[in-house]
Amino acid sequence: SLILGLESSCDETAAALVTSDRRILAHKLAGQEEAHRPFGGVVPEIAARAHVERMTPLVEAALAEAGISLRQVDAIAATAGPGLIGGVMVGLVTAKALAHAAGKPLIALNHLEGHALSPRLADPDLEFPYLLLLVSGGHCQLLLVEGVGTYRRLATTIDDAAGEAFDKTAKLLGLGFPGGPAVERAALLGDPGAVPLPRPLVGSAEPHFSFAGLKSAVLRARDAGIHRPEDIAASFQQAVIDCLIDRTARAIGRAPQATALVMAGGVAANTPIRAAIEGLAARNGLRFVAPPLWLCTDNGAMIAWAGAERFAAGLFDGLDAPARPRWPLDPTAEKARGAGV
Ligand code: ATP
Ligand code: MG
Ligand code: FE
């Protein structure tokens, strides 16, 4: 099958054409860094307007690049949440209009399912079930991915997401926006042992993550005025690595059925974090799979691919599918200490 996938849940507008045999026929993406940089973070109204301006031209460019007409597409997939509601509605409404006009089925996707299945686009040998460390701008979770549509959440963050911690740290240190890559670059020039920072919940009997205390400690280290920003960045990144390793190691012990340890989401584009999780997989005799860097941060190909997976499973949605600002991947998971999903 051939699926058109649209993404617009945050600050990337994207459209891609992907086949069920993993061929990426086109993959178009427009970021909005310049528009949001003056504000040091994503401004929802600016994002929604940019999605409106860019989505249709990107769809046309993707179809043109692939030499495909809409009639040759088997289904149209779009992120329907979770995310910034104005942006989500742009992609979802565009997909509905195209599906209606071309008489094609609609697949209203959970953005997190896009991240969760993206490693299978990258690696044809990755089988269910696998243990997934999903680390992104809005989420930090450990999930047992049992099959398409079956995600068992083992852990989540009780406060900030991992990517959020990177973004806040970058802002505190004046490293710029977007924060993750800026912190990673600064950390290359710093000493990871220079600044003592906490490792929240490491060694804890509970399964969850926490990053808010780490961010506060970064603020205090900055205000102390005795450390170089590069040393704070490197020490912060090392603390995140130690937290991710400890929590993931705990989950490995509780998911003996997993065939592989897998990473996805924007923070999985961080090279030292990838290397650390790869090492953890090796120590536990598990295969390690992570998508290429461009497939970790938001993109249309992961949405088209998740659409292909749902298409194969016969999972479609009606044109009345709602846009959902909040949408847990595992609705049965109890909320961690009242935190969001
Ligand atoms: P979600 O997927 O939870 O809805 P999102 O879509 O905004 O959130 P992604 O696009 O998956 O998030 O990832 C963006 C996040 O990844 C940002 O917080 C960004 O700082 C972080 N990130 C990107 N590259 C890196 C990197 N090299 N190192 C660390 N963090 C990174
Ligand atoms: Mg982004
Ligand atoms: Fe994302």
UniProtKB/TrEMBL annotation:
<dbReference type="InterPro" id="IPR000905">
    <property type="entry name" value="Gcp-like_dom"/>
</dbReference>
<dbReference type="GO" id="GO:0002949">
    <property type="term" value="P:tRNA threonylcarbamoyladenosine modification"/>
</dbReference>
<protein>
    <recommendedName>
        <fullName>tRNA N6-adenosine threonylcarbamoyltransferase</fullName>
        <ecNumber>2.3.1.234</ecNumber>
    </recommendedName>
</protein>
<feature type="domain" description="Gcp-like">
    <location>
        <begin position="24"/>
        <end position="305"/>
    </location>
</feature>
<keyword id="KW-0819">tRNA processing</keyword>
<dbReference type="GO" id="GO:0005737">
    <property type="term" value="C:cytoplasm"/>
</dbReference>
<feature type="binding site">
    <location>
        <position position="298"/>
    </location>
    <ligand>
        <name>Fe cation</name>
    </ligand>
</feature>
<dbReference type="InterPro" id="IPR017861">
    <property type="entry name" value="KAE1/TsaD"/>
</dbReference>
<feature type="binding site">
    <location>
        <position position="115"/>
    </location>
    <ligand>
        <name>Fe cation</name>
    </ligand>
</feature>
<dbReference type="Pfam" id="PF00814">
    <property type="entry name" value="TsaD"/>
</dbReference>
<keyword id="KW-0408">Iron</keyword>
<keyword id="KW-0808">Transferase</keyword>
<comment type="similarity">
    <text>Belongs to the KAE1 / TsaD family.</text>
</comment>
<feature type="binding site">
    <location>
        <position position="111"/>
    </location>
    <ligand>
        <name>Fe cation</name>
    </ligand>
</feature>
<keyword id="KW-0012">Acyltransferase</keyword>
<dbReference type="GO" id="GO:0005506">
    <property type="term" value="F:iron ion binding"/>
</dbReference>
<keyword id="KW-0418">Kinase</keyword>
<comment type="function">
    <text>Required for the formation of a threonylcarbamoyl group on adenosine at position 37 (t(6)A37) in tRNAs that read codons beginning with adenine. Is involved in the transfer of the threonylcarbamoyl moiety of threonylcarbamoyl-AMP (TC-AMP) to the N6 group of A37, together with TsaE and TsaB. TsaD likely plays a direct catalytic role in this reaction.</text>
</comment>
<keyword id="KW-0963">Cytoplasm</keyword>
<dbReference type="GO" id="GO:0016301">
    <property type="term" value="F:kinase activity"/>
</dbReference>
<feature type="binding site">
    <location>
        <position position="184"/>
    </location>
    <ligand>
        <name>substrate</name>
    </ligand>
</feature>
<feature type="binding site">
    <location>
        <begin position="134"/>
        <end position="138"/>
    </location>
    <ligand>
        <name>substrate</name>
    </ligand>
</feature>
<dbReference type="GO" id="GO:0061711">
    <property type="term" value="F:tRNA N(6)-L-threonylcarbamoyladenine synthase activity"/>
</dbReference>
<feature type="binding site">
    <location>
        <position position="167"/>
    </location>
    <ligand>
        <name>substrate</name>
    </ligand>
</feature>
<dbReference type="InterPro" id="IPR022450">
    <property type="entry name" value="TsaD"/>
</dbReference>
<keyword id="KW-0479">Metal-binding</keyword>
<feature type="binding site">
    <location>
        <position position="180"/>
    </location>
    <ligand>
        <name>substrate</name>
    </ligand>
</feature>
<dbReference type="InterPro" id="IPR043129">
    <property type="entry name" value="ATPase_NBD"/>
</dbReference>
<feature type="binding site">
    <location>
        <position position="270"/>
    </location>
    <ligand>
        <name>substrate</name>
    </ligand>
</feature>
